[in-house]
Design a protein that fits this description.
single chain, six-stranded mixed beta sheet, 33 strands
Length: 517
């Protein structure tokens, strides 16, 4: 870690970050944004916002870039001025585009103020709101060292007005699937606060699916949905159990409220939809249009799946093809929200574009499992004193053991995240079958998310799926179960699984998975 006075950060950054910059990107640091290769927003629809894009240069295999985190007075169309923590002063952060075999080198600049003094004896009490790190959600990359290691901490400077510099180096395997992923902080204790501030960005891995003729011909549109919980023009920190209660979600698409996207009759567009929210699931419908799913959670399907509704848990993604219908104005809506996420205007000269019939998807078969595991999400209300009275636990196989068995549900350790306890050791290459149950009665949905490796969803509530689907995040409604098969591959080391309702995760609904040879 390098510490710099805040005023000197931008001036001193090229020298401080020189170790992670390629020669091909050095000239980019004369520009204010200091990227390896910046791609402007497409101007065929200048009214619809797209995040800034930073790509691996065509002549190289390394994307070296900077992500500065700090408080920003953001002017959000349709909302007004919001004080929030951001990447690079924007919600969402820049889209990062890489290819299999590339190296992603990120210089993180923390310009947030020092954390308040004091230490929570319970690690599962939210804390450290000015500390962050990096999780590349859904990426099959190394979970250790300076890669996708969520055990790291990017602390702020010790004095107000300062800044610190931290570095990540993530190698994308040559066989990595092409698809849509995203990045966000994953410091235990502050994850929910950061994601609700809008600290998130899209990662695109380019590859085989992009070369399917019908997909290559389609206009690509990033649809990054952020969920802010605003109170007086700011997102409050998670300083009590009810900090976000009563605050309706403000959903933004690419940083705007209900932006307008145009499409011609008969035109096919590819939407990369990312649910970068923390608390509320999405159930998406587009008036009088069908969405044709071609990928889920970054994994291409074998054939497109026509859907009138696309349900996404927090953290989930879907790539869909949309073909413009009759001229008119239509709304992309989600259940329980009184205004559309975005408006789609079908206008212009009709076009004749087709949809693909076959895709270079990942096969949906795995051998019979050699081991089974059963885990359960379980929450208890009003068992602890203080501002966080609820207990969010993962029980069953591998649960964190009691510290005080006589304490019952008031035991601070039992079933909650412990940084010193490995809950599951998974052998690389072996096939396991997991059943995950939601036994909570009062805290709604618990999306299950596993880092590092995708898993193959095979059954819901004991009913086998006609076609299994690869996921990294799946919703588990109350009193429901999911069953999946897992074959962990390539990477050893400690990683995570957790509930992707991020307040629940910050309060302990998380476990450590260690991948071993």
């Amino acid at each position: 870690m390098t510490t710099l006075p805040r005023r000197g950060v931008l001036k001193g950054l090229p020298l401080a970050a020189g170790a992670v910059l390629t020669a091909s990107s050095a000239s980019a640091h004369a520009m204010p944004s200091a990227h390896a290769h910046a791609v402007p927003r497409r101007e065929d629809d200048p009214g619809f916002p797209q995040p800034e894009t930073r790509s691996t240069p065509p002549w190289g295999n390394s994307l070296a870039t900077r992500l500065t985190v700090g408080f920003t007075e953001a002017v959000i169309p349709g909302v007004g001025t919001v004080r929030t923590r951001t990447y690079e002063g924007a919600v969402p952060g820049p889209t990062l585009r890489v290819r299999p075999g590339d190296t992603l080198r990120i210089t993180h600049v923390n310009t947030l103020p020092p954390n308040p003094a004091g230490h929570h004896q319970d690690v599962n009490v939210p804390h450290g709101f000015h500390t962050f790190n990096l999780h590349t959600h859904g990426m099959h990359v190394d979970p250790t060292g300076d890669a996708d290691n969520v055990f790291r901490t990017f602390e702020p400077a010790a004095e107000p007005g300062g800044a610190t510099i931290h570095r990540s180096r993530i190698t994308v395997p040559a066989g990595h699937p092409a698809g849509t992923f995203w990045y966000h902080p994953h410091h235990h204790g502050s994850t929910a606060t950061h994601v609700l501030n809008g600290m998130a960005g899209v990662i695109v891995v380019e590859g085989d699916v992009d070369r399917v003729p019908e997909i290559a011909a389609a206009r690509e549109v990033v649809v990054c949905v952020n969920e802010l919980r605003l109170n007086g023009g700011r997102v409050p920190d998670l300083t009590s159990e009810g900090a976000f209660e009563g605050l309706a979600p403000t959903f933004l698409v690419n940083g705007a409220r209900n932006p307008v996207l145009t499409i011609a009759p008969g035109e096919v567009q590819r939407w990369r939809i990312v649910h970068a929210g923390a608390l509320a699931p999405l159930s998406l419908r587009l008036d009088r249009h069908t969405m044709h799913q071609i990928a889920r959670d970054g994994i291409t399907l074998m054939t497109p799946v026509a859907s009138s509704r696309v349900a996404l848990p927090m953290g989930g993604r879907a790539d869909v093809l949309v073909r413009g219908g009759e001229p008119g104005t239509y709304e992309l809506i989600t259940d329980g929200v009184d205004r559309p996420l975005m408006t789609v205007v079908v206008t212009g000269r009709p076009r004749e574009m087709s949809l693909p019939t076959d895709l270079p998807g990942r096969p949906t078969g795995l051998p019979a499992p050699t081991r089974t595991r059963h885990v359960a999400f379980r929450s208890y209300s009003n068992v602890f004193p203080g501002a966080f009275p609820n207990a969010y636990r993962i029980l069953g196989d591998g649960e964190t053991p009691h510290a005080d068995p006589s304490a019952g549900s008031r035991d601070l350790a039992w079933g909650r995240f412990s940084p010193d306890h490995v809950n599951h050791r998974v052998r690389l290459g072996e096939v396991e079958e997991w059943t995950v149950a939601n036994n909570s009665h009062s805290h709604a949905h618990h999306p299950f998310h596993m880092h590092t490796n995708h898993f193959l969803l095979t059954a819901v509530d004991g009913r086998p799926l006609t076609t299994p689907v690869w996921h990294d995040t799946v919703d588990v409604p109350p009193r429901s179960t999911i069953t999946f098969r897992l074959r962990a591959e390539d990477f050893e080391g400690r990683s995570m699984l957790h509930c992707h309702h991020l307040q629940h995760e910050d309060e302990g609904m998380m476990q450590i998975v260690e991948y071993v040879r």
